[in-house]
Amino acid sequence: MEPQSLSTRRERYEREFPEYKQPVEVGSFSLDSEQRFFNDRRKLRYYVEPDANPMFDLKDGYRDRYKKRDESVKERLDNLLRWVLENRSAVSSDQTMASPRALEAEFVTRRGRLTKLLTTPYESREGWLLTVTMFKGTLYISEVETEAARRERESRTERHEEMTYWGYKFEQYMCADDDHSSPDPTGVVNANEAFYTVVKTRLADHKLLFSNEVDCRDKDPAKDSSPHATSAPDKQRSNFNRFKLLRWWAQSFPPGVPRIIAGFRDDDGVVVAVETFPVSKIPDRIKTERNCWKPNVCINFCCDFLSIVKRTVTEDDPDVVYLFSYEPYRDVTFTVHRNSLYSFLPSWYVEGIIGSQP
């Protein structure tokens, strides 16, 4: 096999935006307060429009009503794989000699991996390690924590931990447990709880199936929202457009989330204003910014990465893992690992897929 690499130089991806099929939700699942999987919608929350002058205190409850998630425990793809096993009819392929895949999708992953790929041409601070394995014709993409990311996680300051809480707290102020109630900011903020949709779509000729965490849903199901709390952009409008909007767009575009609800806070963690950003309008907002990011560069890089994965990952074996590595300002490269610690498809999933085939 010839060594291959993928350039991250932006000018390589300055071409027409590829076809991206409208994402379709094919299912959903929930994680409870202990991160247990449920094949239902019990953790779905609903967006409630805030007052014009919210004055949300994001510090409230940090000391006494906050259950952190253990970030040293990496989920990989396990919960999505549990959903696949319980919903085979929604994602199975009609197997033929021409298409031997067990699943209809060519790629199975989480939304966060796609976000990393979309932002890579403009990422100058953090590298990544993506693991890919082929099983029954489908390519599964997971992630390994980099050494730099591990060091950063283990050395976080108390201020950083509190500011992480502020994001969860903002969601609590904005979201209700059902479509007939109001948000309850007096309750516990539990970072383990989550609601995910499972989405299928196609980017150029790449068929994708991925899980997507949904913070809340409007009473109108076409209006999913993604609430984010951030510092006031007036102090640094350029950085807001270059970095915040890039990440928000890259998180929201793949699953088709139509709008982002941004809470702008002061340095003391008090939300003083809330603004809605339609995701489809974000590219227009950054057009006047000099040397800013471009959506077509992001999506073309992602598309080319998936293409090189198809050409590179040739061994259909869950014990064979291709490790793709990116460091800022360098090309993406890969190495191959057999029966290693990088293997990530659990035996219960492999056996479940094999056992369900005719």
TrEMBL record:
It comes from the Eukaryota. Its cofactor is Mg(2+). It catalyses: a 5'-end NAD(+)-phospho-ribonucleoside in snoRNA + H2O = a 5'-end phospho-ribonucleoside in snoRNA + NAD(+) + H(+); a 5'-end FAD-phospho-ribonucleoside in mRNA + H2O = a 5'-end phospho-ribonucleoside in mRNA + FAD + H(+); a 5'-end CoA-ribonucleoside in mRNA + H2O = 3'-dephospho-CoA + a 5'-end phospho-ribonucleoside in mRNA + H(+). It holds the Pfam family RAI1. GO terms for cellular component: cytosol; nucleus. InterPro entries: RAI1, RAI1-like_fam. Its main location: nucleus. It is found in: Nucleus. Its EC number is 3.6.1.-. Binds 2 magnesium ions. Keywords: Hydrolase, Magnesium, Metal-binding, Nuclease, Nucleotide-binding, Nucleus, RNA-binding. One of its GO terms (molecular function) is mRNA 5'-diphosphatase activity. It is an enzyme of class 3 (hydrolase). The keyword Metal-binding applies. Residues 21-350 form the RAI1-like domain. Decapping enzyme for NAD-capped RNAs: specifically hydrolyzes the nicotinamide adenine dinucleotide (NAD) cap from a subset of RNAs by removing the entire NAD moiety from the 5'-end of an NAD-capped RNA. Belongs to the DXO/Dom3Z family. This is Decapping nuclease. The lineage of its organism: Eukaryota, Metazoa, Chordata, Craniata, Vertebrata.
